[in-house]
Amino acid sequence: MASNLPEETTSPAGLETQLDRIEHALATGRLTTLTGTGGAGRTLLAIHAAGRVRPLYRDGVRWADLAPVHDDELLLATVSEAVGLGGHTRRMPVEALVEAVCERLAGMHLLLVLDSCEHVRPGCAHLLCEILTTSPGLTVLATSGQPLGVRGEQCVGVLGPAPRPPR
Ligand SMILES: Nc1ncnc2c1ncn2[C@@H]1O[C@H](COP(=O)(O)OP(=O)(O)OP(=O)(O)O)[C@@H](O)[C@H]1O
Ligand SMILES: [Mg+2]
User: Fold this and answer.
1) Virtual torsion, Cα 55, 56, 61, 66, nearest 10 deg
2) Candidates 7, 43, 117: which one to mutate for ligand 1, based on the most atoms within 8 Å of Cβ?
3) What is the pLDDT of residues 129-159, one digit of tens each?
4) What CATH number matches the domain at 21-145, 2.50.20.10, 3.40.50.300, 3.40.50.150, 2.60.40.1180?
5) Which of 31, 93, 112, 167 is 20 to 30 A from 152 via CA?
6) Chain-centre distance of CA 16, in angstroms?
């Protein structure tokens, strides 16, 4: 499955220390969550971090943009599409979709990025508990205002760009 990482034109210059921390967390745990306030640079860091580690995953990186998602039905439909299950899943009930995503990812070696989980944290936590159990080759990078509260989660706080010095 080809990766679907969004393009990011902002340079990663100055982000090396944070990218190293994220890379270390991804290498040592199954779920890393970038936390911080809106505009802090969570999405920017997630794109650059995922781009860095992509060669390490046999089945690449799949990116799910959850920014417009406000309910569990759309959450599961969006993740299903991100992992290549196709649009016909939109009418399926949530639990059937959780099962379909588990089946799809079961044999894969993949980094799944869930960007902007803040509006659907309980739904993300439920899905992650399931897929991290059934998919041993799966690693997840999430971004969220607050931690997702899933066992084994490693959080990396994003503080945002340093303020410009006064002129
Ligand atoms: N350290 C940084 N250096 C340069 N630009 C940055 C930095 N952090 C963030 N930005 C820029 O600030 C804007 C917001 O960043 P980003 O979208 O990554 O934030 P976010 O934490 O994902 O916020 P939200 O999801 O609420 O929009 C983007 O245009 C991004 O390129
Ligand atoms: Mg964002």
Assistant:
1) -130
2) 43
3) 999 999 999 999 999 999 999 999 999 999 8
4) 3.40.50.300
5) 93
6) 19
